[in-house]
Design a protein that fits this description.
heterodimer, A: alpha/beta, Hypothetical Protein Yjia, Chain: A,domain 2, 2 domains, seven-stranded parallel sheet, six-stranded antiparallel sheet, elongated, B: alpha/beta, TIM Barrel, Glutaredoxin, four-stranded mixed sheet, 20 helices, 49% helix
Chain lengths: 302, 457
């Protein structure tokens, strides 16, 4: 499966929100690497459903205990676990991150632990829950954004329409390949995706991160108005999404690039349009002007 | 009547900072939780379960790091344990929650902790003791686990699904955990805490809309209650909470502490507009734990240059890792107190000036023991002062039978000596050219017996 000439171990990250099926997928992924000295670092061996495959003979193991808390004050535990894993001499190290963790900062910690080649990050998403989760937990989007491959798991529990929306949402976060899976299995071997980005610290620098604005208003608008508004501002911003009340009912608005999609929705915890734009680009004034031109109700941007 | 000018205490400085005053320097709050134990050789578990060891360790933090404010305990599992969560202990980290009482039986009983629950009596006693011993000159922080993190401790990760599937239950649980927070804050204020900080790392993980929906109310209530009880308040968050900064400010804390995931300059624009003081964000792992003195001084000087001394408090990003080298804490306090001189030190680090030749003593053929003390500057750095005092005591004791000399890093010539000697940490004591004490100040008896051994050999 893997040929290696140097003694620098490779590192593969498996990330994903709580309950998305990371451990199940990790087992499937690891089974593809036969005849290789493997190491695995997980958040808590006591909690993952062990059916033997993660604990089988010959696999080096390290555990990070942090419970459900993910905090920068616990990063040193990851560094120490990785340090001792490197000492054990595996050829490839799999890291399963905690479900609430934001993996975007992991690269700056790797050089402290030692020499590793960070080759790939897989993000497992929970198909039936992804849309609701990404609406509430900002970390869900960060997990997708930091990955090289997305595994859409539990596809059998989502409808075709839901799957389409999930695929679209993910493609708005990044253009990484997407695989559909059941029980962590995609039905075919998953090719190894090498990271395009190396040393992305500068890319993740706070000054370069996109900024997010929220447009809120009271009352109903029309689908036509929404379509016009989102269509116009898309030239200015990177992405628009959110649930809105219209005269035709509750809708989910989703826009990126030149495409605006508006679909009927059943329920939403909050309404409003979330707008993602480049950090240093002044967009407030134009957003307000465009809004005033199309709608005749007051809005608030925060 | 004659008035004698006196220097402002660190506590006054910190409290004035929380009143948005412009200050001669930024205050400094080292979040030494389990790390305090390291200073006295105690494990994380010892320092969190033994009141006497806790106070000894906190006093050592106070002595070495000269804080303007300091927390008494940094353990986000304390309330959870008092409410029935199981903990897993570690020697070098705070405990983790392993069992969640509301996981199986989800009924919220509404019981509130009191002065006898779990480790709370121990903490209250440590607070009173610290108040007596250093409370006049140091502002004391009582840290309370925030309602969102506490809810996830009690219910486990199911709580995050509750937010989606059973929003009313999630809201009820948050209302209960907020009551717990309020009770804890009340007890801590009574025990003499000047600032109550609600520490809620999970806040960085949720969207601003959900922050507003679930947490704005509870936090606003908590900060109003702290204010009513005459204390100052703080909101601590870990992780990338960039999007929530404004909503957090709107809940009305006096201050907000963040970690390195937040760009402090952009965040301060928001906090300034709400009159909220911001604190942070020295990186815990890359700089404090694995960096050296120079890295730490540099980071702090840069922070101060970008943020100024108004509405800003220098602090680590969160609870300091247990093994942070002591000298890094010393370097930070030095940078906070003596910006200009530390800038000069940093320049000196970079200097590769030719022409200064340093002749090291012939250590193998000395007439008498030579005690060399390498310091940042014993006039301003507390740890350096203590190190130098021990050396001076030795001089008083052994008089002309020993030689004692101080090399301050602030003198350019000494940089060359320090580099040539390979001195890594300041302050350090070398005897006859060999490193004997690095950062940790020796006990007088131990130090004297070391010298006596040399004199008799």
């Amino acid at each position: 499966m893997k040929s290696k000439n140097s003694s620098v171990p490779e590192l593969v990250l498996v990330t994903g929100f709580l309950g998305s099926g990371k451990t199940t997928f990790l087992k499937v992924l690891m089974s593809q690497y036969r005849d290789v000295h493997k190491g695995v670092i997980v958040n808590d061996f006591g909690k993952v459903a062990i059916d033997g495959s993660l604990l089988e003979e010959g696999i080096f193991k390290e555990e990070i205990s942090g419970g459900s808390i993910f905090c920068s004050c616990r990063e040193n535990e990851f560094v120490e676990a990785l340090k001792s894993m490197i000492k054990k001499g595996p050829e490839i190290i799999f890291v399963e991150t905690s479900g609430m963790s934001d993996p975007s900062g992991i690269e700056r910690l790797l050089p402290i632990a030692g020499k590793v080649e960070y080759i790939s990050a897989y993000c497992v998403v929970d198909a039936p829950r992804f849309l609701a989760l990404s609406d509430i937990f900002s970390v869900v989007e960060k997990q997708v954004a930091s990955s090289d491959v997305v595994i859409i798991n539990k596809v059998d529990k989502a409808t075709g329409a839901e799957l389409e929306r999930i695929k679209q949402e993910i493609s708005m976060i990044g253009n990484m390949p997407q695989y559909q899976a059941r029980y962590g299995m995609t039905g075919k071997a998953i090719p190894l995706f090498k990271r395009k980005k190396t040393g992305t610290e500068s890319e993740n620098h706070p000054d370069n991160r996109p900024k997010s604005l929220l447009i809120e208003w009271e009352g109903e608008v029309t689908i036509e108005q929404l379509k016009n508004f989102v269509g116009e501002i898309l030239g200015l911003v990177l992405r628009v999404k959110g649930f809105c009340r219209t005269e035709s009912g509750l809708v989910l608005v989703s826009g990126a690039g030149s495409s605006v999609e508006i679909t009927l929705a059943d329920k939403a915890s909050e309404t409003g349009l979330s707008v993602i734009s480049e950090r240093n680009k002044p967009v407030l004034k134009s957003l307000k002007e465009t809004w005033e031109r199309i709608f005749n109700i007051e809005m608030k941007i925060t | 009547m004659e008035f004698i000018a006196r220097e402002e205490t660190g506590k006054e400085l910190l409290l004035e900072s929380l009143e948005n005053k412009t200050l001669p320097r930024a205050p400094w709050v080292p979040f030494a939780g389990v790390h305090a134990g390291k200073l006295k050789g105690y494990t994380a578990r010892e320092v969190l379960t033994d009141g006497e060891k806790l106070v000894q360790s906190l006093l050592e933090v106070n002595r070495l790091y000269r804080p303007d404010g300091q927390p008494v305990v940094f353990d986000l599992q304390l309330e959870a344990e008092a409410l029935g969560c199981d903990l897993v202990w570690s020697d070098v980290n705070p405990p983790s929650v392993s069992g969640h009482p509301l996981k199986k039986d989800r009924e919220i009983h509404g019981l509130l902790p009191d002065e006898s629950s779990g480790r709370i009596p121990l903490v209250l006693e440590a607070m009173r003791e610290m108040k007596r011993k250093v409370g006049r000159h140091t502002a004391l922080f009582g840290l309370v686990c925030g309602p969102l993190t506490l809810a996830s401790h009690l219910r486990g990760t199911d709580f995050f699904m509750d937010i989606i599937e059973e929003p009313q239950y999630a809201q009820d649980l948050l209302s209960y955990t907020s009551d717990v927070c309020n009770r804890m804050a009340g007890m801590y204020i009574e025990a003499g805490m000047d600032v109550i900080a609600f520490v809620d790392p999970m806040v960085s993980q949720i969207s601003p809309r959900h922050f507003k929906r679930y947490l704005s109310g509870p936090f606003s209530g908590l900060f109003a209650s702290v204010r009513q009880n005459g204390a100052k308040s703080s909101f601590f968050v870990c992780g990338d909470a960039t999007k929530n900064i404004e909503a957090m400010c709107q809940t009305g804390p006096d201050s907000l502490f963040v970690d390195e995931n937040i760009d402090l300059v952009s965040a301060k624009e928001i906090t300034d507009s709400y009159g909220v003081v911001i604190g942070g964000n020295i990186p815990l792992t890359t700089t404090m734990l694995y960096g050296n003195q120079k890295d730490n001084m540099k980071y702090v000087i840069e922070l101060l240059e970008r943020l100024g001394t108004r509405n800003y408090i220098v602090a680590p990003g969160c609870d300091m890792p247990y093994d942070v080298p002591v000298e890094n804490g010393i370097a930070i306090q030095q940078a906070v107190r003596d910006v200009e001189r530390v800038k000069a030190i940093l320049e000196n680090y970079e200097t590769t000036e030719e022409g200064i030749e340093i002749d090291l003593p012939d250590y193998e053929h000395l007439e008498k023991p030579l005690i060399e003390v390498f310091t940042l500057d014993s006039a301003t750095c507390a740890a350096c002062t203590y190190m130098m005092s021990v050396a001076r005591l030795a001089l008083e004791e052994f008089k002309d039978r020993v030689d004692v000399v101080e090399y301050k890093f602030t003198v350019r010539e000494n940089i060359h000596r320090i580099k040539k000697m390979g001195v890594k940490n300041l302050p350090s004591i070398y005897i006859n050219g060999r490193l004997k004490y690095s950062s940790i100040i020796p006990d007088r008896r131990e130090f004297f017996s070391e010298i006596e051994k040399l004199l008799s050999s």
